[in-house]
Amino acid sequence: AQSVSQHNHHVILSEAASLELGCNYSYGGTVNLFWYVQYPGQHLQLLLKYFSGDPLVKGIKGFEAEFIKSKFSFNLRKPSVQWSDTAEYFCAVTSYNTDKLIFGTGTRLQVFP
Amino acid sequence: EPEVTQTPSHQVTQMGQEVILRCVPISNHLYFYWYRQILGQKVEFLVSFYNNEISEKSEIFDDQFSVERPDGSNFTLKIRSTKLEDSAMYFCASRQRGGDTDTQYFGPGTRLTVL
Predict the structure, then answer these.
(1) Between 3.40.50.300, 3.30.70.1530, 3.40.50.460, 2.60.40.10, what CATH number should domain B5-97 receive?
(2) Could you tell me what percent of chain B has a pLDDT over 90?
(3) Which of A40, A78, B3, B43 could bond to A19 as cystine, CB 3.0-4.6 Å?
(4) How close B83 gets to chain A, by Cα (Å)?
C-alpha cells in the first residue's frame, strides 16, 4: 500500500532561517505530489504540487519543492522563513489509478521572531 | 475566490446518535471527498463521490457511514450511530473536472465530538 513519511514532526526555527521539510513516499509508479499547509484555525490550503515536467516546483509564499524520483522524495524548502509561516505542513500523494490523497503525519513548524 | 464551506464548525453528540455533516463544494466542481483527522493522527481518506455515486471508499467507511448529494449543491456525510472513536475533524474536499484536474480544495472542517 502507498504511504507517505514525514520524518520531522516538529520544527522550531527563528525568523530568516532556512527550512527544509522531508517527505518520502512508497509507491513505485506514476505519482502526483502535493504539499498542503494548515495555518492555526484555518483549513488545508495547497502550497504547491507536482504532476510532471520540471522536478523543481515553486509554490505560493516563496515555498518550493524538489521531486527526486530516485529517492522517492518531495522535500519542501524555503530559504528564509517568517513568523507567519507558523503552521502544520502536510505532504500528500495520489497515483494514476486513484485520486484519493494519501497524507503524511504532518510537520508542525514554529517560527519565532 | 470560491471556497468549500462546511457546517457546522463543531458538533457535539451522544454516542449512538446520528449526525449529518454538511459541505457545499465549489460550484463547478464535480468530484467530492470526505477525509477525517483524529486528534494527533494523519488525515485519512474516507470516500470519494462522482456522478452521484461512490467511486472509492476506505475500510473506515463502513455501513455506519453514508454520503449524499441531495440537491445539487450540498454534499453530506451521515454517521448513523456514532461511536466514541468517530470523534475527529472531518474535512470535505472538491475537485474540478478538467484543467486543474488533480487539485483537491478543502473546506475548514467540522469538529465532531462524541460523548
Answers:
(1) 2.60.40.10
(2) 79
(3) A78
(4) 24
